[in-house]
Each structure stands twice: as structure tokens, then as C-alpha cells.
Amino acid sequence: MKKATHLASIAALFVGLAACQSGANSGQQLVLPEGDATAGQEAFVSLECTACHTVSGLDLPAAEEMGPVTMLLGGNVSKVKSYNELVTSVINPSHKLARNLFKQEIAQNGESIMPVYNDVMTVTQLIDIVAFLDSRYEVVKRPSYRYPVYTY
Ligand code: HEC
């Protein structure tokens, strides 16, 4: 009897988790049409993202007016940056600030200093920029450690 209750509560937990995922902000992957990385690079330059960003492996023309930070995009990362993350970073820059150590440089009053381009950038430019940036990231596996297995 006790075991059955236990199982029932585990089942309830799973139902609960499943229910959590069905909200408006469920963890569903965003599926974008295929972007054009070359057009994305052009949009990145013409929208002057280069005022604050350099891109790994590329020497992009500088923006007319340089921003207060220079932050590298692309390069080696330990975890795949999903389209989800890239799109979120561009359309909602203040969503995730905490990882950065230099918070005072990248945010003012909790808002990212990165401009919101939502009224300026076309959806096609967004898709292309994401394809462009996605192509500049390289996933590098962290060395993994094998823990000894003790048998007593
Ligand atoms: C005025 C400076 C500034 C400009 C201009 C700017 N950004 Fe940013 N961007 C930032 C800062 C600061 C961050 C880090 C904090 C954050 O996420 O807002 C950032 C973060 C990002 C990230 C997330 C990087 C990561 O590793 O999580 C992406 C992607 C990005 N920017 C793309 C763009 C694109 C595309 C443009 C042009 C359309 C642009 N940025 C223009 C300042 C800027």
C-alpha cells in the first residue's frame, strides 16, 4: 500500500511537470526557417551590431559610432547555443544578464545596454543573423573525468 502511494505521487509529479510545459513559455524549441549566414553577416554590419560586438574569426568593418563595450560573439563554447538562446539574446537582451561578471558595464538599472532592435530589424534579418552567429560558434567538449567506482 505504501509503495502504491509512493508510485502515485511520482506519477502525479510527472503529470505536474508535463502541465508546466504547456504554458505560453513552454520549453518548446523554436523552429526557424533556414537562414542565410552571408546575408546575416551583412545585416549584422549594417545594423551596427559591430559597435559592441566582435565575431570570432572575422574582421568586420567597425561601426560608425563605437559602443561602450566590446563583446566577442562566437568562438569556443562548451555548450551548444541553441537558436532559442540566440533569438532570445537578440529580441530580449535583458532576459539573461547574470552570467556576466562585468554587470555594471553591460546593464543599467537591470536593463541590458544592448538596444532592442525589434522595431528596426526585419524577421528575415533576425533569421539570417541567427544563422550567421550560429555558424561562428564551435562546441568544445570539456575534459571529462572518470570517477573511480568503489566496491565494498
Ligand atoms: C550598445 C552595445 C550593443 C550593441 C549595439 C549590440 N549588442 Fe549584443 N550585447 C551587448 C551586451 C552588453 C551583451 C551582453 C548582455 C546581454 O545579454 O544583454 C550582448 C549580448 C548579445 C548576445 C548574447 C551573447 C551571449 O554570449 O550570450 C547576442 C547574440 C547579441 N548580443 C547579438 C547582437 C546583435 C545581433 C546586435 C545587432 C543587431 C547586437 N548584439 C548589438 C551589447 C550590444
TrEMBL record:
GO molecular function, one term: metal ion binding
Keywords: Heme, Iron, Metal-binding, Signal
Keyword field contains Iron: yes
One Pfam family linked to the record: Cytochrom_C
Signal peptide as annotated in the record: 1-24
The keyword Protease appears for this protein: no
Domain Cytochrome c span(s) in chain numbering: 35-137
Protein name, entry field: Cytochrome c domain-containing protein
Gene source species: Woeseia oceani
